[in-house]
Amino acid sequence: YFNANLFPNKGNETRPFVFEKKPSIILTSRVHPGETGASYMMKGALDFLLSKDDPRAIELRKNFIFYIITILNPDGVSRGHYRHDTKGLNLNRFYLNPTHNEHPTIYANRELIMYCSNEKKLQIYVDLHGHASKRGVFLFGNCLDYSHQIDNILFAKLMQLNCVNFDFEGCNFTEKNMRAKDKKDGLSREGSGRVAMYKATSLNHCYTLEANYYSGRVIGAIPPIGKEDYVETMKKYGLDPILVPEAMKKQVDEKSEKPQEDKEEKKDEDTENSDKAEGESVEITKSDDTTDNTDEPEKKIIMIPNTEEEKEPSKSKNDTENEDDDDDDEDSSKVSSDANSNVKAGKIDAIPESDVRNRYSAVYENGPPAY
């Protein structure tokens, strides 16, 4: 396979080494130059994939070829543009029929994707973006037939199980989101990398990964494989069990070093605390009898509120109409009910912005919830 437009001076010279038996994964970012969050995500992906000690990264490198394009719109990035290139074009609308002169980077990226697809090697294609209006980290996928849609949405569910910041309910797999037109220039999203390359390759796993510039709606928790088993497995490789909170590691260490406390004594403590605690937040002050506790400081117990009134309010109609037309933006902020009615999202409570820091502390200090 040789494209003279991409390698005009190479002729029939020897090409780079080809890994014939390995499937391929393609990651791209910054087709919209102002979406700097995409570069942060790409930096994290590169750091992980190039890790020398992480057994997950080692296995990925053994079994896959990663084609990574960090900046698809270098001219726009260099000149400080937000969405277009130097010719005023939104490059993420020309994947259906890019030209070598007008859209050189998109032309080259499409040729790479088609090459991997024709060789039956392409497994996943993900285009990384930043999002100015919709909060969180989420995927935009394509609307497929039922059997393929399960496989399509399963990838998003696996991301939720491996990333505390990923918002599964914020993902969108609707047909409307594949055909919508931009408000300003009228260009259809059928020309975006996600939609156009799916139509050209019939690959189930074509995605746009979006990350808000500021914050997310939810903080999830990574379900453990098994507290003792996972920690011991990671220690066997001499690694820090990064997916397990510090409190969980301490719990495992304490369990191996100290005998288990008397159940009756623990039950008495729980009963005593339950008598004192009422409601969502409780302040425990010194008792009237200060003869024995004069030196003890005042103690407070504050629990994170989780009521319906404190959840993030839904957007008004005016707010929805004023959203930016970021790539593949969609009014709906939940998984499509028509395309994905048979695949339910995991229930994660939305929390107010003021409680994000507290929820982070709750997740990492107390460990993930029981599943």
Note the run of SSEs as H and E.
EHHEHHEEHHHEHHHEEHH
**What percentage of the residues does DSSP assign to strands (E)?**
5-15%
Total number of beta strands:
7
* Helix percentage: 25-40%
Query: Which strands sit side by side, in order, in the main sheet?
Result: 2-1-3-5-4
Distance between the termini: 49 Å
Segments where pLDDT lies below 50 for 5+ residues? 277-294, 296-357, 359-371
What class do helices, strands and sheet pairing give?
alpha/beta
Quick overview of this protein structure:
The protein has 371 residues and is α/β, with parallel strands linked by helices. It is 34% helix and 10% strand.
Structure explained in plain terms:
The longest helix is centred in the middle third of the chain and has 17 residues, at 146-162. This protein has helices spanning 37-49, 55-63, 74-79, 104-118, 146-162, 176-179, 193-201, 227-236, 246-257, 263-276, 317-321, 356-366; strands at residues 24-29, 65-69, 122-131, 137-140, 206-212, 282-284, 299-301. It is globular. With 371 residues, the protein is α/β, with parallel strands linked by helices. A five-stranded mixed β-sheet has the order 2-1-3-5-4, sandwiched between helices. It has a two-stranded antiparallel ribbon with strand order 6-7. Helix 4 packs parallel to helix 7 (193-201).
